[in-house]
Amino acid sequence: MSRDLRGRAAIVGMATAGMGEAPGFSAMELLGQASVAAVADAGLAMSDIDAVFCATSAHAFPTMSVVEYLGLDARWFGGTNVGGSSFEMHLIQAALALDAGLCDAALICYGSNQRTAGGRLVSMSEPQWHETPYQPRHPITAYGLAASRHMHQYGTTRDHLADVALAARGWANLNPDAFARGALTREEVLGARMISDPLSTADCCLVTDGAAAVVMTRADRARDLAQAPVYVLGGGVAVTHRSIVAMPDLTTTGAAQSGPRAFEMAGVAHDDLDLVMLYDAFTINTILFLEDLGFCKKGEGGAFVEGGRIAPGGSLAVNTNGGGLSCVHPGMYGLFLIAEAVTQIRRQAGDRQVPDCDLGLVHGNGGTLSSQCTAILGSEATL
Amino acid sequence: MSTEPQTGPQATWERFLDEGRFMLQRARGSGEHLWWPRVATPSGETDLEWVEASGGGTIHAITVSRSRSGTINVALIDLDEGVRMMSTLPGVETAPIGTRVVARIETVGEAPRVVFDLAGGAGA
Lengths: 383, 124
Fold this sequence. Notes:
The complex is a heterodimer of chains A (383) and B (124). Chain A is of the alpha/beta class. Chain A has two domains: 9-118 and 208-230, Peroxisomal Thiolase, Chain A, domain 1 (3-Layer(aba) Sandwich); 136-203 and 234-382, 3-Layer(aba) Sandwich (Peroxisomal Thiolase, Chain A, domain 1). Chain A has helices at 27-41, 62-70, 86-99, 140-154, 158-172, 186-190, 219-222, 255-266, 283-292, 301-304, 323-326, 334-345, and strands at residues 9-20, 51-54, 76-78, 105-112, 194-196, 199-200, 209-218, 230-239, 275-278, 359-366, 371-378. In chain A, α2 links the parallel β2 (51-54) and β3 (76-78). The longest helix of chain A has 15 residues, at 27-41. The model of chain A has no long low-confidence stretch (mean pLDDT 96). Chain B has two domains: 9-52, no CATH class; 56-118, CATH 2.40.50. Helices cover 8% and strands 43% of the residues of chain B. Chain B is built from one helix and eight strands, in the order αββββββββ. The A-B interface holds A 129-131, 133-137, 140-141, 144-149, 152, 193-199, 243-246, 250 and B 10, 35-37, 60-67, 72, 74-76, 84-88, 94, 97-98, 111, 113-114.
């Protein structure tokens, strides 16, 4: 596999907006705020942006809408929609387009007001005709099915799922931008109302507002801009299915394919990583991705998260913003994984800062464990 | 076996269901079954014929969906033909993974659907 893309492009600007609740703002206004701030963070002007990548839950043609709203003169764009993992895909696509000279400064952006707009998950996802008669409430039905199978096959328990939720809250309590903060006990997690067995309300991500944006340039230009560059070292993707019934193995996601591709391109090993950002739409996700990305063996993810291993003070820093479970989850969460990795690698994470954080993995998930997109990001020291 | 009707696989399957028949597609050459009805199997076979499902299956995964509108289970059933299908067991709240089940066609409201009962008869 080619390593040609390693370190060729970097994230040079990043911002978030409306994290948690942003009453009175539309999805596009939040996206616009984050984009304006990310461009300024890079020390660039909006007129420097000549490529845009985006996917939203609210727009049929988000690329057109964003180009118009921000007044961009885009000579390249991408709108791949693979659910919440879209933004890891966009990151890799932007690196490719920059490296090929198709553009010079790429904006990746997302915004949603779904909490204040109604408080329910907004999705444009169409029902699958062969599933509709059984009234699945996707996404949770699909994740409940996957969790039931993991428990059956590997002895994973609701206590293990609780370990994931408690670790996320532990990190959120160190992050002033996290929406769900405050004490949370194992008893409260285990006693939460069941929604789709074995998953309860405590196993589900938040429904918040929020927007994020990153700006990317080629590495040579990145060094002359306002912030320390965060380089794209590797990326890999995989799509295994659309309907949960067609998932080849309910206990193994496409992360088992996307992860090795990303590690190969980056030329790094698991022990090199300082930070691991996993798309935790549900608690079972974290366990599945730790296994599939190779941090432990298949079936051992439950035992892996015991004893606070991924919580603050544990041996592996996972989802240090508090994750989709306790920080922010405005419908599509993928760009917030990247935002946290940038924050950590820039050493701007305050109380939750991971010491000497130079190398981070971000892993996006989309659909019903359908799309898996992995990227590895690093500081100048990792080149 | 049936001759191929002149509609797409989805409409054909739904017409069979309206007649009270639970049908599956099968590739003539490879013998591979297919769920749900499509124009080709995932391995690319297009020599498809319709065959009656045996109705036997095993619960592969199951979740109980609890909401204000009620409690229902949603299950993935491994059919004896080697394909996996989403369905439900209307007669029970839930059942262990690995339990043997039998298909029947249920009509509640306008459209018929394939559901499953425990093979032992409980909850049927």
